[in-house]
Amino acid sequence: MILTWVLGLVFLVAKLSVVLILLLTCAAYLVWVERKLLGRMQARYGPNRAGRYGLLQPMVDVIKLITKEDTVPKGASKVIFLLAPGVVAFITLLIFAVVPFGRNITLWGRPVPLVITDLNIGLLFVLALSSISVYGIALGGWASNSKYSLLGGIRGAAQMISYEIPLGLSLVPVVMLARSFSLVEITHAQSGYPFILVQPVSFIIFLIAAVAEIKRIPFDLPEAENELGAGYHTEYSGMRFGLFFLGEYITMIILGSLVAIFFLGGWHGPFLPPILWFLVKVGVIVFALIWFRATFPRIRYDQLMNTGWKVLIPAALLNIIATGAFILAKS
Amino acid sequence: MEGVRALLKGLATTLKILFRKPVTEQYPEVKRPLPARSRAVIILTRDPDGEERCVACYLCSAVCPVSCISMQSAEREDGRRYPRWFRINFARCIYCGLCEEACPTLAIQLTPHFETSQRDILKLVYEKEDLLVNHGGKNRDYNFYRHAGVTMVGDKGTHIDEQKPVDVKSNLP
Question: Which pLDDT tens digit goes with each residue over B70-79?
Answer without folding.
Answer: 999 999 888 8
